[in-house]
Design goal:
The chain is built from nine helices and 14 strands. With 274 residues, the protein is of the alpha/beta class. The chain has one domain: TIM Barrel (Alpha-Beta Barrel). It has an eight-stranded parallel β-barrel with strand order 1-2-5-6-9-10-11-12, surrounded by seven helices. A two-stranded antiparallel ribbon has the order 3-4. The chain has a two-stranded antiparallel sheet with strand order 7-8. α1 packs parallel to α2 and α1 packs parallel to α8.
């Protein structure tokens, strides 16, 4: 079985210190947490950034640079930058896509709109076309985030239109209250519709974190963990670091008999061009 790629989602755009005191917010904290995850065995870090003064999410490329520069100097991590912007605020397209100008190896591509809390996370066809165009221009591989089946159909149509290069890489997002649930039946329904030559990873939100990780481990997929997706290490016990989640998946995977991919090996598996 292919080696396991672990992605660490460090901070996200929604979790605050009121929810958990352990969420990294400043560039320095995000860098430190990402470095710890790399040391623990993560090959990819998924990066959002926050305004250091307010702790709120931002797409400010200068803050992204403060995170990217030390990570590129000190690690060989694959950096996956968000293009989701700030769900609910519906930022202008070019502001959302500004991090792509920094030429990360991966960038998130949310393949459709979805209700999210009391707001709508809008990803219009026009936005998706522009995102795909810009990622191709900058040599950035899309990480196609899937919340429901329609997003897979959209992605395949864009592939057929020549807007994506194969192999596609999918990130299944399971367990949000407004999308596909984090159950084996739900996941298998989605999995059956992706192209055979695709690579894929799973996010299990909240209590779906560990069950969905085990699905990916057994089926040869890859796993995303981190405080963006789940703040509890076990029932009622807050995780203190992102690296705790990485450590656990490394341990379980090795006991299962599946080795962990280095960043260099992950680049080969995902067909990321150097």
């Amino acid at each position: 079985m292919e080696k396991l790629i672990i992605t660490a989602a460090i901070t996200g755009s929604r979790i605050t210190r009121e929810i958990t005191p352990h969420i990294p917010l400043t560039p320095e904290e995000i860098v430190q947490s990402a470095h710890e995850c790399w040391q623990a065995g993560a090959a990819i870090v998924h990066i959002h950034v926050r305004d250091p003064d307010t702790g709120l999410a931002t797409q400010d490329v200068e803050i992204f640079k403060q995170v990217m520069k030390p990570l590129r100097e000190k690690t060989d991590l694959i950096l996956c930058l968000t293009t989701s912007g700030i769900p609910g605020r519906n930022l202008p397209t070019e502001e959302r896509l500004a991090p792509v100008d920094l030429k990360p190896e991966l960038a998130s591509f949310d393949a459709g709109s979805i209700n999210l809390g009391g707001t709508v996370f809008i990803n219009s066809p026009e936005f998706l076309d522009r995102a795909a165009e810009k990622m191709r221009q900058k040599g950035v591989k899309p990480e196609i985030e899937i919340f429901d089946l329609g997003m897979i159909i959209t992605s395949q149509r864009m592939r057929d239109q020549g807007k994506f290069d194969e192999p596609l890489h999918f990130q299944f997002v399971l367990g949000t209250p407004w999308g596909a649930p984090a159950t084996p039946k739900s996941f298998l329904h989605l999995y059956e519709h992706i192209p055979d030559n695709s690579t894929w990873s799973i996010i299990g939100i909240g209590k779906g974190h560990l069950p969905m990780s085990m699905m990916a481990l057994a089926m040869g997929g890859h796993i995303r963990v981190g405080l963006e997706d789940n703040i509890y290490y076990s029932r009622g016990v807050l995780a203190e670091t992102n690296a705790q989640f990485v450590d656990r998946i490394v341990r379980i995977s090795r006991e299962y008999g599946r080795e962990i991919a280095t960043p260099a090996e992950a680049r080969d598996i995902l067909s990321i061009k150097g």
